[in-house]
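Input (structure):
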């Protein structure tokens, strides 16, 4: 080992274009000591090996010229030391951290592809020690940056999602979650299951159920073109809307009142934004099918719902009567948005910083602004230009049979009255 170590010190020193005197100064020894090491007459004290390795940016094993078999054997030994430290009755935070640091410094080619030692940190609870977790973060970042083993990277992500503390978990998910098996929700399910945080797990499950219902109710692809040359029928779209409304009514255990085909019972519930969009579309579909009475009833119902939305007190919780959705309860909120020299009020549904907009305005591109233009061509109507029949939601001419109906005009006046504006000021 003496000859190998001395030769390696000389080789690494020369590769860095460093003199014996410069190396000695960094180590706090005499240049004669460095000369004797390189000549093989003596070798450095063991405590100097990590310092030498750091100066040369190599591992201690590389400095010693250790074989791969010896390195693997030493890595297994250091894992045993870590296991003994983390399962000790009295955990020594500094000792555990020191072992992890040694592992990271000297055995990078092994720890990057071996996540089993994380199991010991996990199962023993040692990850709860702040210094240990900080060292684990450094190891994790090293693995993600330098490992060529994608499977190992995924395993480390899954484990860190379980172990990371509350302060850092959100940022961790932003940096490491992907769209499939390592999505933020998938990692949180693992985390909550591991930590036995059943309340959080149930809340997440219900949020995911809500998102699935949202996809079923609002996915525009299901209003797919059905006829020749990309056209689709009002009858088909009406059928799809009824399926969606029946789904919402069933979830809420509601037998819909004939006067409330959209809301079911006229109340404000968890699915208010879904009901508003479906209701607006359903009005046109019924009118396009020649069902004038049904179209007007639908329109009056969803505009009544809109009135409840815009007048709801701040912080009102919206719930669902289904036991499958008894934890997730977003709150109503509102804000004012600048729109062409003035501000318009918007309603919000918010939960843990996530927003679902169910607002009304008279300009293009602002949430339900297009629906206002759809029903009132004197407002913004470019998005639903009657000359642009075949737009992906429906043909705006389907509304023509009801535009002159007194009930339609009365409902439209109520829709106008919901738009609140105020002048912008410098403040």
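Output (sequence):
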């Amino acid at each position: 080992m003496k000859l190998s170590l001395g030769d390696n010190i000389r080789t690494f020193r020369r590769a860095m274009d460093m003199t014996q005197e410069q190396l000695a100064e960094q180590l706090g020894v005499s240049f004669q000591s460095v000369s004797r090491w390189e000549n093989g007459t003596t070798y450095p004290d063991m405590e100097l090996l990590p310092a030498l390795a750091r100066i040369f940016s190599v591992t201690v094993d590389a400095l010693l010229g250790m074989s791969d078999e010896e390195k693997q054997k030493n890595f297994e030994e250091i894992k045993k030391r870590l296991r003994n430290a983390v399962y000790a009755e009295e955990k020594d935070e500094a000792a555990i951290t020191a072992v992890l640091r040694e592992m990271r410094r000297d055995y990078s080619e092994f720890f990057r592809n071996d996540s089993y030692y994380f199991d010991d940190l996990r199962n023993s609870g040692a990850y709860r020690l702040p210094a240990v977790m900080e060292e684990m973060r450094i190891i994790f970042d090293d693995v993600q940056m330098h490992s060529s083993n994608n499977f190992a990277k995924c395993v480390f992500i899954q484990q860190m999602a379980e172990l990371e503390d509350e302060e850092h978990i959100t940022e961790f998910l932003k940096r490491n979650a992907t769209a499939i098996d390592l999505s933020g929700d998938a990692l949180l399910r693992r985390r909550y299951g591991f930590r036995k945080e059943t309340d959080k797990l149930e809340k997440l499950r219900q949020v995911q159920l809500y998102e699935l219902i949202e996809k079923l109710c609002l996915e525009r692809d299901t209003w797919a073109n059905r006829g020749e040359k990309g056209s689709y029928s009002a009858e088909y779209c009406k059928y799809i809307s009824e399926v969606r409304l029946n789904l919402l009514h069933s979830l809420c255990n509601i037998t819909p009142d004939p006067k409330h085909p959209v809301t079911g019972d006229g109340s404000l519930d968890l699915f208010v934004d879904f009901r508003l969009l479906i209701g607006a579309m359903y009005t046109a579909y019924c009118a396009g099918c020649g069902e004038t009475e049904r179209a007007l009833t639908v329109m009056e119902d969803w505009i009544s719902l809109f009135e409840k939305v815009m007048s709801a007190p701040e912080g009102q919780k919206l719930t669902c009567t289904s036991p499958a959705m008894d934890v997730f309860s977003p709150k109503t909120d509102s804000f004012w948005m600048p729109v062409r020299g003035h501000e318009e009020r918007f309603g919000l549904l918010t939960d843990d910083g996530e927003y679902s907009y169910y607002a009304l305005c008279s300009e293009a591109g602002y949430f339900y602004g297009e629906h206002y233009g759809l029903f009132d061509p004197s407002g913004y109507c470019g998005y639903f230009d009657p000359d642009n029949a075949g737009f992906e939601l429906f043909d705006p001419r389907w509304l023509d049979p009801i535009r002159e109906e007194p009930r339609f005009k009365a409902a439209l006046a109520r829709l106008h009255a919901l738009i609140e504006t105020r002048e912008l000021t410098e403040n």
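Notes: The two ends are 76 Å apart (CA to CA). The chain is about 55% helix and 5% strand.
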